[in-house]
# Entry
Amino acid sequence: MFNIDKYSLISFAPSIAIVAAMLVITFFGIRFMKREMVKDARKAGER
# Structure
């Protein structure tokens, strides 16, 4: 059904790598933003 040879993989693999990298960056970015929001909320509560 799906015939994957090395020539089609040459263009397919980088596309999948880019999509995977964007998902990882988004995941870590969301975690980072949540941590920063908690820090800011703590600082705002101290005043």
